[in-house]
């Protein structure tokens, strides 16, 4: 009986394709459609920012220069009190879905070759430090993996700083 | 008085269209070779990245104007994009252009359309290279490319989809072998994954998703190009290559069906495991983790079935480099799948996520696993398309040895570096540079060394293939076995019985 059913399916390309698509659509339903309704009601938290033009430009540069390839913006629950950039726990508060409400795209990140930047503005040394760090990070952190962004214009670096300042 | 002067000149023979030849197999062959070039370009970026991570100070010697094209972020985007979309995808499609007509006992539906996809794919590759170097990026992992690239790539892909689906529709062999199931599901699912994952139907110019839903769709895209594209194509190729090379049927047809149906049921919902313990809905993470564990079923079904198919001819692993490549690739697939399923568990994910361990995991799957299977397909298809036997089997063995050794060294040190980072991060209290950057930098030298071995192996391979393709020494000695050549088409009909064989072809390589 089961063999007859399978032989029937195997001989019928259309049925095979339709069945595969049906099964695939279940995944689309549960991981694309349902999450849309599950995630569209979050209230913006105090960290969510409606970006100004300059900050938006900074975000764009953040995407284009590939900052997000090495810096995550995603503080996970278990590391909230241990995660250390300079001092224990200074990684900041655990990320909330509401933090990301206005972000397009979000920079969750998958890798941390550099520290998490979700709350980078809270451990912001100074404007000068940041500029030197963009232009010549090696001077501040010998051996760092952060490349020099000296090829960006001063205006663009200001925009990038303005965006990073929103990450409180 | 002769008649010579009055004779009309013989009609000029049709010049073959170099851009869109119709000789069967040429599209597969060109797709594969151009994909190999992209592989070398993409892997060179990988090597540069490894050298950078071992000793970042060397970048200071690069002029600032050039540095902007070699910024780490852009190099990584280019490495991932070129190696995935232009080496592995093109190699996979080349493999399908070769196996699908054979399994259908019919010519490819349109060789010209296949050539159109080769051209489009390469143009998309060049566009990707330029746009990402200039910093035109969507800022979403695996989905960085901007609209022009998406259009070109989808165009190329849809040409391939139309071609392969129609080849199957007009087949002469009624039963569908399991490789065809995998191939069909891959070429049909991938356009859907791209369109939904990038939201091209909502807003082609920009990313239409905001907030954490962006992350949900990003990893629907990012994981399903692995699960709905590279995995089914790679397994489909292995299901073709192993029985063909060993000349024995597969171990169990039933098990291959189990593997197929569980794969397309279990693989698509696992994208959320890239953001475990993040702000993503908890149930979505749990669903992804659960299905990641279920992945053991399709993985073990396919790998067990294929291992058992090799088992009666284990000695052939030492005789045929292509078979050895397939089995190496399958082993890497098994390892990476076990790793991936376990890495999805919350306890382990909290520990190892964000480190170089994850990078090594992805490279084990794509670079070592499916690349090896696709390379085996190349070793199988190129002699059969061109009619030239492989130039040197010894060089093929050197390719395998250096490729395998390179990957073992690279992955061992890269994943160890990841574990060092994780362990130090877990302890806490140390400055970022002390805990995760400095301790791992020495481990990056062997990673770069492994990369040098892999690239060397591919240069050997390229030399071998070029010598194979341009080799004319075989012509007087032996014609290829007609059974191993592509079937007849309307344009290139089979010779009438009794007529002399038409070998060698006028332009064996077009």
TrEMBL record, chain A:
Residues 53-168 form the Cytochrome c domain. The keyword Transmembrane applies. The chain crosses the membrane at residues 12-37. Signal peptide: none annotated. One of its GO terms (molecular function) is heme binding. InterPro entries: Cyt_c-like_dom, Cyt_c-like_dom_sf, Cyt_c_oxidase_monohaem-su/FixO. Keywords: Heme, Iron, Membrane, Metal-binding, Transmembrane, Transmembrane helix. PROSITE patterns: CYTC. This is Cytochrome c oxidase subunit CcoO. It comes from Deinococcus marmoris. The lineage of its organism: Bacteria, Thermotogati, Deinococcota, Deinococci, Deinococcales.
UniProtKB/TrEMBL annotation, chain B:
The keyword Transmembrane applies. This is Cytochrome c oxidase subunit CcoN. Residues 480-510 are annotated as: Disordered. Keywords: Electron transport, Membrane, Respiratory chain, Transmembrane, Transmembrane helix, Transport. SUPFAM superfamilies: Cytochrome c oxidase subunit I-like (SSF81442). GO terms for biological process: aerobic respiration; electron transport coupled proton transport; respiratory electron transport chain. The chain crosses the membrane at residues 32-54, 84-104, 116-134, 146-165, 177-201, 221-242, 249-268, 288-310, 322-342, 362-382, 394-414, 443-463. Gene3D superfamilies: Cytochrome c oxidase-like, subunit I domain. InterPro entries: Cyt_c_oxase-like_su1_dom, Cyt_c_oxase-like_su1_sf, Cyt_C_Oxase_1. Residues 12-419 form the Cytochrome oxidase subunit I profile domain. GO terms for molecular function: cytochrome-c oxidase activity; heme binding. It comes from Deinococcus marmoris. GO terms for cellular component: membrane. The keyword Electron transport applies. Residues 494-504 have a biased composition (Pro residues). Pfam families: COX1 (PF00115). It comes from the Bacteria.
């Amino acid at each position: 009986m089961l063999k007859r059913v399978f032989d029937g399916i195997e001989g019928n390309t259309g049925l095979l394709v339709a069945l595969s698509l049906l099964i695939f659509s279940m995944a689309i339903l549960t991981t694309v459609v349902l999450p849309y309704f599950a995630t569209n009601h979050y209230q913006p938290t105090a960290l969510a920012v409606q970006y100004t033009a300059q900050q938006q430009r900074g975000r764009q540069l953040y995407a284009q220069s590939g900052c997000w390839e090495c810096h995550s913006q995603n503080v996970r629950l278990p590391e909230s009190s241990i995660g250390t950039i300079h001092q224990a726990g200074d990684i900041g508060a655990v990320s909330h879905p509401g933090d990301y409400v206005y972000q397009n795209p979000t920079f969750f990140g998958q890798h941390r070759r550099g520290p998490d930047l979700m709350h980078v503005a809270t451990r912001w040394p100074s404007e000068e430090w940041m500029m030197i760090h963009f232009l010549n990070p090696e001077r501040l952190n010998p051996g760092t993996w952060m490349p020099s962004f000296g090829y960006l214009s001063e205006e663009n670096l200001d925009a990038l700083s303005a965006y990073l300042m929103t990450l409180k | 008085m002769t008649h010579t002067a009055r004779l009309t000149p013989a009609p000029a023979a049709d010049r073959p269209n170099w851009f869109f030849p119709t000789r069967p197999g040429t599209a597969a062959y060109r797709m594969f070779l151009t994909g190999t070039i992209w592989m070398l370009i993409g892997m060179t970026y990988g090597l540069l990245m490894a050298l950078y991570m071992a000793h970042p100070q060397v970048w200071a010697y690069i002029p600032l104007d050039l540095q902007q094209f070699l910024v780490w972020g852009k190099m990584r985007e280019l490495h991932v994009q070129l190696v995935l979309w232009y080496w592995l995808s093109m190699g996979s499609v080349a493999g399908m252009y070769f196996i699908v007509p054979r399994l259908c006992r019919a010519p490819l539906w349109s060789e010209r359309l296949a050539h159109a996809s080769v051209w489009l794919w390469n143009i998309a590759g060049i566009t990707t290279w330029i746009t990402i170097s200039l910093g035109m990026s969507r800022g979403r992992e695996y989905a960085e490319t901007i609209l022009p690239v998406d259009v070109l790539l989808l165009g190329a892909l849809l040409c391939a989809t139309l071609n392969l689906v129609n080849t199957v529709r007009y087949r002469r062999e009624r039963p569908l072998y399991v490789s065809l199931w995998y191939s069909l599901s891959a070429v049909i699912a991938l356009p859907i994954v791209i369109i939904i994952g990038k939201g091209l139907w909502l807003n082609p110019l920009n990313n239409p998703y905001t907030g954490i839903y962006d992350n949900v769709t990003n990893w629907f895209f990012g994981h399903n190009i692995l699960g709905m594209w590279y995995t089914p194509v790679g397994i489909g190729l292995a299901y073709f290559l192993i029985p063909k090379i060993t000349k024995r049927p597969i171990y169990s047809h039933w098990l291959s069906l189990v593997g197929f149906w569980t794969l397309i049921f279990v693989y698509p919902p696992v994208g959320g495991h890239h953001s475990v313990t993040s702000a993503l809905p908890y149930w979505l993470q749990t669903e992804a983790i659960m299905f990641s564990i279920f992945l053991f079923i399709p993985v073990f079904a396919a790998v067990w079935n294929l291992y058992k198919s090799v088992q009666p001819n284990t000695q052939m692993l030492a005789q045929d480099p292509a078979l050895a490549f397939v089995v190496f690739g399958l082993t890497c697939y098994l390892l990476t799948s076990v790793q991936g399923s376990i890495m999805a568990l919350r306890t382990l994910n909290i520990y190892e996520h964000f480190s170089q361990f994850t990078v090594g995991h992805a490279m084990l799957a794509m670079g070592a696993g499916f690349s090896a299977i696709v390379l085996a397909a190349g070793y199988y298809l190129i002699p059969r398309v061109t009619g030239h036997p492989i130039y040197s089997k010894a060089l093929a063995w050197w390719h395998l040895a250096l490729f395998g050794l390179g990957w073992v060294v690279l992955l061992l040190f890269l994943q160890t570096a990841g574990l060092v980072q994780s362990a130090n991060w877990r302890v806490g209290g140390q400055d970022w540079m002390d805990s995760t950057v400095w301790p791992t930098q020495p481990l990056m030298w062997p990673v770069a060394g492994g990369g040098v071995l892999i690239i060397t192996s591919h240069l050997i391979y390229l030399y071998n293939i070029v010598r194979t393709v341009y080799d004319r020494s075989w012509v007087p000695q032996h014609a290829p076995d007609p059974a191993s050549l592509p079937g007849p088409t309307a344009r290139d009909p089979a010779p009438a019985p009794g007529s002399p064989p038409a070998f060698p072809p006028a332009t064996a390589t077009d």
